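Researcher: Batch entry, complex prediction.
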Amino acid sequence: EPEVTQTPSHQVTQMGQEVILRCVPISNHLYFYWYRQILGQKVEFLVSFYNNEISEKSEIFDDQFSVERPDGSNFTLKIRSTKLEDSAMYFCASHEGGRPNTGELFFGEGSRLTVL
Amino acid sequence: AQKITQTQPGMFVQEKEAVTLDCTYDTSDPSYGLFWYKQPSSGEMIFLIYQGSYDQQNATEGRYSLNFQKARKSANLVISASQLGDSAMYFCAMREASGGYQKVTFGTGTKLQVIP
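Model: Structure tokens for the complex:
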């Protein structure tokens, strides 16, 4: 069964360092997303990406965050200068597209980021 | 206003019994989709079931069924014959086709504990 894969599964970094989280969405999917979940809290939308550009972003997704699809398969989330409050589980997700009220949103297993 | 409301922060159920997890939603978009995800303690997000706003019948997937009441804007998850492995956080989520793109909003989750 096709799946969304994420690397690394866990990253520990020092405050102020840059972090890149990587995702490989399902190959025929057109919509890509990043979500985050601070420990014990709900899953929060960060950004959606379609046709090689950001289609929507939340207020959490400030100038410290960026996304790109460098090579047609990977979908990356970069945090330029990490803060303690960036510690969370980051989920990548993808969706096939088509009619908006159909189909499953596939999630990766998450990348746990710990900022010290 | 909250887009997705899960009013039960925690629920207990006896093994082999059925349990209903509540979810209400708020949207003015006529086309939307509703999801339930399971998040075990290991952290990954596992898709359980999907209901489209235009679907005439309630969705079912094995022991999971979605009690979709459109007029009341509720999408409760019913788990029949609970198993110990069902103990997890359960998130209700909604996808709206706002602006041609698709954004998924999650509820705060319900922690289900299955008792032997």
